[in-house]
Structures are given as C-alpha cells and as structure tokens.
Sequence to fold (206 residues):
Amino acid sequence: MKEILEATYFGIFGRRMSKKMDKYRILHQIIDENTQTFVFEWKDDSIPKEKSKIDFQRNAVEYFLKNELKIEEEIIRSESGAPFFKSNSWFISISHSEQLFAVQISSTDSVGVDVQVFKKNIHRGRAYFINDLEETTYKMSDRELHLIWSAKECVYKLKKGAVEHYREDISVLNIDEDQIVVEVNHTEQVLCSFLVEEKYVLVYSP
Fold:
C-alpha cells in the first residue's frame, strides 16, 4: 500500500525527522513497504555548481540521505553510469532537473526514478526520444511529451542502461490516470507510476 505525502518530514519506514531545511525542501515523499521515493528542491549554494553534474548530484543526494534518513553511504557509479551504494546495502536511483532532485531507494529491488521540470521548448527535441509508435498514439501535448520522456528515463535507469537504442527500444504504450505502461526491448512491459505538478513531472518504478 502506497502513501503519498506532500512536504512532509518522515524518514525511512515512518521515523519522524527534523524539519530543519537549510539546504533543501522536500516536495514529495512516497512510502511503500520496501521503497521510498523523494522529490526535493535544492536551496543551498555551498556545493559549487561548477563541479561536474555527477559530483554535484552525488554530494547533494548524500547530504540529503544523511540528514533525512541517517544513511551515511558513499554513492559511486558503475561503468554504465548507474549509481549504487558502495556497500550495496540499498538499491538507489537518482534524477536531477534544474534545482529539483528525485531519489528512490529500496531494500529489496532495483529502482528507477526521473523528474523533469517543464520545458517550453521540449517539442524541438522530441525526435530524440519519440518513436513512430508514440507519434501515432499520442497528441504530443507538453504534458504527454514530458511524461513520455520521463518514463523512458525512469525505465532506462531501472534497467541500468541495458537498452541498445533508447528511442526505439523503449516505447510508452499507455498513459493512464496515474500509471504508465512501458515496453522495453520489445519483450518486457514495465508499469510505472507518475505525478504531474505545476512545474514538473515525476515518474518512478513501482
């Protein structure tokens, strides 16, 4: 059973946390039996933006996990770029869009998460990720384009990059009220959940 909390302050498996938010602000927390998904806004400039994107992500997420969940683990990257804890104690997925971060952790299963801030010019880049099936299935509204893009990123991360052709081998088959059906490598279907907010979309693995 899933519970979605907005701007709340509960840690792993219900432990209440401090409301001190000097560096970040939690926008969403989604609690499941073995998995937690967070969206937070980074508010602090103490981690220099001129560092590489990967370094910035790792430092911000490690800080967040340490302060919110008391998880003090080093995050490293595989050859494919997928993040994981050095101790392999948790599964983790990370997404970063402008000042927003999404983090999903699980004690039992691989995870995938993606957050995308709405972009006015997304139509210009649609050829990069929209395939022929999707062109004929959807009206290509801004909402649909962002959800398709985010769903593909989510599944790509869930599969740790084991997808040869991003555009063609990941297809969004259906977008429902709060779930998306994605086909991977023309053989497997993955069910993702999503949220649409005023400024961003979030897609995450179940």
DSSP finds four helices and twelve strands in the chain.
